[in-house]
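Posted in: Structural Biology > Protein-Ligand Complexes

Title: Requesting predicted complex, magnesium ion in pocket

I'd be grateful if someone could produce the 3D structure tokens for the following input. Sequence and ligand are given below.
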Amino acid sequence: MEKDIQSILISEEELKTKVQEVGDQITADYQGKEPIFVGVLKGCFIFMADLVRSVRVNCSMDFMAVSSYSGTTSTGAVKINKDLSEDICGRDVIIVEDILDSGVTLNYLKSYLMVRKPASIRIVTLMDKPARRKADVYADYSCFEIPDAFVVGYGLDYNEKYRNLPYIGVLRPEVYM
Ligand code: IMP
Ligand code: MG
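-- Reply #1 --
Done. Output follows.
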């Protein structure tokens, strides 16, 4: 498995330090509130598990699963494969994403959830690839800004593989070419 990785972009140690830092920021910003973390499956699962354990306010959690409609990504259409099970009306929602790339997914998701009248919606992303942004969406909390490379590990996959790598690595181009 490791032989498919060209280089380590973000080490386990760096992940740990930065995720704790962002968790502390969320703790400070949500004093007196009880946010609901909404994870976007599957990529969020490891990041979210670490993030929520670094947050020190009462909170709840829910998950969604989404995928892009093939061939129609330019329209911003996203398919909801699993919707929330909690009511978010009046709640402070924090969407948890693995990576903000074109922004199409999060842009759609944010407006989709806005209709349910939450008190607020913020976005926390592990990584941000600003170079590839198409939709007008930004992260309120971003752990790492990264260059335009395809990365895997710490929850992120290529064809469902490599999610279990404990670090963020750049995939060798031979693997997907
Ligand atoms: P977008 O922001 O709508 O373009 O899509 C973001 C989604 O694409 C992420 O949630 C990931 O699932 C996937 N994605 C984008 N870039 C990468 C990457 O470098 N590695 C793995 N998945 C990626
Ligand atoms: Mg994803």
